[in-house]
């Protein structure tokens, strides 16, 4: 069977990205761009928060404003940046990586995306209603979240719950799509143990979404009913139980952190081999560990609410939480093993991966500290926790996302990103993140609670350092934005495999045609990451490569 | 078809260098563990040494792990970098089953050991004061203290509100907004909330308990150091959450007895509640933010105390 | 390749040759599994609130009348059987018998909804009658919403059964709807036990 010449398309018009499209590659870019739009908004809120926290007194904004700021910072960062950007990466990467033309349900895919600007609008609109936005944290614990001083029906909390519910529906629709696609649309010859790790971790993460989100939705529906209809699911005076909400909330929101980090594990697992020129160490273990994390991830949620629950629950969930360190460690060691005796290339994506790995190990250590109940009783709800999760989210996950964007940018835009700006972005990010989030640990140990709009003077020193780090992080986004826009508009044209990487997506033109391989899906004949083995990944690989190179030469 | 790495036998020089490096990492980790104590407030309860010991241990172990990972990364960046124009691949090492087993089993043993240690500490903390005498609070229950089946500790009722802390000494007819405790004497708190969730957190004691409306929670501890410490609300409770702080004064038995005696004789007056003052200022200045829940009036107590004196932790 | 489109999944865009089978049923099953978790969340919320309540029943309420709901239950469970019969006839290509039993299933579903409405109308407690009222209406209401959706889906399938060539590409729509209906049934059985059978 000869492969047809996979002719590189002319670069698509920018107009495609503003309309309703069912092409996963367009939807993927739409998700990512919209996500970064909200990232900038939530980041701006963070700048104001850190501005307030430069001094002990509440002297920059009113306390109600501060509470709205920190609530919306967290809410927007999670529901309007992190989950959408990861869904964007899923859309871009999964179909080509498995040789599929698109997602299983393209129209559903588009619907799931277009819900994002809708609930994004609701959340931003909540700043402008008379009652102001939700101000009870991104957890929205009752009873405080049910206090509605103005008594109006359309209040910030109402919009918040609505937005979170819509986000949940959008995510569930996405999850159904991603899981079906991975289970049913892989290329011939691609059994599960020939599937790239990114698809393994995507499958794991989306399974968690399917199991966990409905619990959050259920809890949120009851919250909305309490808020709007006067029921008493969570109101003690009506016989309700505020802690019940906490269980519903965290039953989802703990797995949610694995939904965030698993794809990043996938990204690291994809990138370390490329930039070490070496196979992923222990591919099978890394793949299987993803699902061990899924299983354990569903039975640890109580560690978020140790101070609210009885003693027997604390010991049980401490043990389950500690166990998660093991499959996670297997992955970290696998990446180290991949780098060991490799031929390391310190490109921008690799720098972000290495920085992300180091930050992640640090976060893992503070995570083990938080898992042990006696220490957690002291530091829960303090800045120690804020430091921990920002290390994971910004220090590891966001860095992994940047790594992915730089790495796959050529494939999906057809242009190369500028290395110099990329490296600058990395340095500013790594320094900024560590300066911002490391001081939070001593603050928490000293007893500074989280979510405070003012603090005792002895906390000033570390807060000033943290704020400086935050401002540095704010600045760090500038080279990134410049790079993305400038490279996409006039960066050098990319060929089909600028990194000399092994994977189905690299056997497509840059950018790929709308239906990827179309009817000519190559048959996979070996395991992924075959660096140094001089074996083709697919049948007729040499011909495919020749055709691509020829088409590029005659461009 | 996977090739397992043929681990090259390192030379004796490398082994000695490695041993020295590991020794250095161990030394640094032990030093870090010692430093960890400085990051914590003074120890003012009998729970604190237990918690701190666990934290120091975790810091030591964590430092070693972190240094180990960073060492490996640094080594690969130093020694395993690709040559400038070398586009070729490295050795196709796909894995090593023995290594996988080692780095699964050792972390498993390690985390289970830490968990076991933590359970011991947790149990001891429980013996000092089980935090699980949670029972529903109904309207008929008198505000007067719940004796429970505990030691004859001092009984203090703690009422959390938006945004103040009120302390009542039921047998002694004293109420205050500054918590006074007797050195080395166990105390049983009865924690109640009049409105929303609050967090009863005293960093110097290393103890925290969420206060849940609709329930009365028994909470026990023993202060072990004289001084003035901060009590901070640790569970977000609304607009003036950050200002919902009170002072905890640990004093000798004599001082405590005389404080109680004087307090019982003092007339009721408005206790401390920074939120009330701030709210009044805010109203006077005109709207500066979004609508807020109105602060509860300051509790009427015998001894308002102070929350602006210097505190030890 | 024709597929029977049905909410909420969508048929894949035609990619020219369409040599890959439609994945609608897979997607729908995955969606159903996820949907069951929200019911699980409501069930566990109900159980926890009930177990920890000091006074579960609101003042003036003696308990739930169970006879009418039992009849409704029998009707609903039987409707699953009539649905199986309908599918059986469809497999034998006896389309008119299929439609007859399908319609019968719809009617039984509609009767269940009617019975639920009658029950609601006759109750002496409301949504805000403590956690008892809140959980009761939440559980039965959310389930009723699913019954209504099921009846609608069945109507859609019934209509489509008259289109010529409707089943050329498979009968995923019918399969999915029947799966949904059985799911709704099982949920009801659990609900019935939790609400009406469980005595303190």
Counting copies of identical and different chains, the oligomeric state is heterotrimer
Give the rounded overall mean pLDDT of chain C. 87
Please provide the ordered H/E string of secondary-structure elements of chain C.
HHHHH
Shape type of chain A: globular
Low-confidence stretches of chain A: 1-5
CATH topology of chain C: Four Helix Bundle (Hemerythrin (Met), subunit A)
CATH hierarchy, class of chain C: Mainly Alpha
Number of helices of chain C: 5
Main sheet overview of chain A: none
Alpha carbon gap, first and last residue of chain A: 25 Å
Fold and architecture overview:
The complex is a heterotrimer of chains A (555), B (313) and C (200). Chain A contains 16 helices and no strands. Chain A is an all-alpha fold. Among the domains of chain A are: 20-195; 494-555, no CATH class. In chain A, α10 runs parallel beside α13 (419-437). Mean pLDDT of chain A is 95; it is low at 1-5. In chain B, the strands form three sheets. Chain B has a six-stranded mixed beta sheet with strand order 1-9-6-2-3-4. Chain B is elongated. The termini of chain B are far apart. The radius of gyration of chain C is 20 Å and the shape is elongated. The chains are: A mainly alpha (555), B alpha+beta (313), C mainly alpha (200). Chains in contact: A-B, A-C. Chains A and C meet through α3, α4, α5 and α6 of A and α1 and α4 of C.
SSE blueprint and pairings:
The complex is a heterotrimer of chains A (555), B (313) and C (200).
Chain A: H1 24-52, H2 63-98, H3 106-125, H4 156-184, H5 197-229, H6 242-276, H7 283-297, H8 311-323, H9 325-339, H10 348-371, H11 373-379, H12 383-413, H13 419-437, H14 440-446, H15 460-490, H16 541-553
Chain B: H1 12-36, H2 48-79, H3 97-128, E1 133-136, E2 154-161, E3 164-169, E4 174-176, E5 179-182, E6 187-193, E7 198-202, E8 207-211, E9 215-221, E10 227-233, E11 245-251, H4 253-265, E12 269-270, H5 274-285, E13 300-301
Parallel strand pairs in B: 2-6, 5-11
Antiparallel strand pairs in B: 1-9, 2-3, 3-4, 6-9, 7-8, 7-10, 10-11, 12-13
Helix pairs in contact in B: 1-2, 2-3
Chain C: H1 24-52, H2 67-91, H3 95-121, H4 130-160, H5 172-197
